[in-house]
Design goal:
Elements (H helix, E strand, L loop, with lengths): L1 H25 L8 H10 L3 E5 L2 E5 L8 H35 L12 H14 L10 H20 L7 H24 L5 H8 L19 H15 L1 H7 L3 H6 L4 H23 L5 H13 L3 H23 L8 H18 L7
Antiparallel strand pairs: 1-2
Helix pairs in contact: 1-3, 1-13, 2-3, 3-8, 3-11, 3-12, 3-13, 4-5, 4-6, 4-7, 4-11, 5-6, 5-11, 8-11, 12-13, 13-14
């Protein structure tokens, strides 16, 4: 109960911070929009179920007098991008917290088993040579498939006699990442006129976000539901992850099915990371810095660390993307996260605050 109360308290604070960042971000741009107007525009979009005369319908309970231009800017242009950034940040930070606990290493991040490298090969291939792909798969589908194939391939390489040593998994991930990096470099050499598009994707971006990213199938918010479902599974295994920090032999002695738990954590982390990378490109440091900072603040208990890292990751990426699109020239958000994350991480190293979990 103590962990649940701490998780709820910290999540409430970070959730409020996330809402504030979203509202402020939606008001920032070439056409400034007051925060009050942003809130009203968002409230106007809220729907509630009603039953009138036995018929079911959705009703908008709020209505305000707003400039149509402000309403369109907030709801059609800025909010989809902001919410996609929040969702990607949520996924990357959650996966980063799990990977750091899984490997018992604060230097671990969601791409440590090659997920980002696999997604990069898939995405670059779909841009440079789409004709070689089967069934006419698009960029996002190919990137997601590349991420999953790589993650499960690394796991298969590192597994022997039904067991997967963490050290072997880490080394296999490094080797596969290097190999896939070579493939990506070869594809870049043959990119031709597609070079700019490829490089832009590899830098990480959110600028093409639209409501179609959330509700591509019959009005069903596929991506948010998928990310939240993966997160729910990870959160359900937070206690088991805590026990794994003691070591695999100790965890087995305490009743944890070690190999099954490792398989599930790796699979779900790969799925949630692959989904994020597929829609946003390679955005670095979110899954590395955010969980590490939150661990210093809330402690190593993953029942608290996992939800707080996810919410903080959302707020961080929304803020970073706001900075990326607010200058004289819009930048890929991956540049901003790297520019902020790398110096901060070096600062932590200088202060000797990075240590084994």
């Amino acid at each position: 109960m103590h962990a649940a109360r701490r998780a709820a308290g910290w999540s409430a604070v970070l959730g409020a911070a996330l809402v504030a960042v979203v509202v402020l971000s939606a008001g920032i741009g070439p056409v400034p929009v007051p925060a009050e107007t942003v809130l009203k525009a968002i409230l106007e979009a809220v729907v509630v179920p009603t039953f009138a005369g036995g018929d079911f319908a959705w009703r908008h309970p709020f209505s305000f007098s707003l400039q149509q231009s402000h309403r369109a800017i907030v709801m059609s242009v800025r909010l989809p991008r902001i919410l996609l950034g929040a969702l990607v940040g949520f996924a990357l930070a959650a996966a980063g917290a799990v990977m750091q606990g899984f490997f018992r290493n604060p230097m671990a991040d969601p791409s440590i088993v090659g997920v980002s490298s696999g997604a990069a090969v898939g995405a670059v291939l779909s841009i440079v040579a789409p004709a070689v792909l089967p069934f006419g798969f698009g960029l996002e589908t190919t990137a997601f498939a590349g991420a999953l194939v790589t993650a499960f391939g690394v796991y298969a390489i590192a597994t022997e006699s039904g067991k997967t040593p963490v050290a072997t998994l880490l080394l296999a991930g490094v080797a596969v990442q290097t190999f896939l990096g070579a493939i990506t470099s070869f594809l870049l050499l043959n990119a031709g006129e597609s070079m700019r598009e490829v490089v832009y994707w590899l830098m990480g971006h959110l600028d093409n976000a639209g409501w179609d990213d959330f509700v591509p199938v019959a009005g069903v918010p596929v991506l948010p539901l998928f990310v939240l479902a993966c997160f729910a599974v990870l959160l359900a295994y937070a206690r088991d992850l805590n026990v794994l920090l003691l070591g695999e032999e100790e965890a087995a002695g305490l009743g944890i099915e070690v190999e099954r738990t490792k398989q599930l954590l790796l699979a779900i982390s790969a799925l949630i990371t692959g989904a994020a990378v597929a829609v946003s490109g390679v955005i670095g440091f979110v899954g590395l810095i955010v969980p590490h900072v939150l661990r210093l603040v809330v402690g190593p208990d993953h029942r608290v660390l996992l939800p707080t890292s996810a919410l903080a990751g959302s707020a961080f990426l929304v803020a970073a993307d706001t900075a990326a699109r607010s200058g004289p020239q819009e930048l890929p958000v991956g540049i901003v996260t790297a520019a902020v994350g790398a110096p901060f991480f070096l600062f932590l190293l200088r202060k000797r605050r990075v240590h084994e979990l």
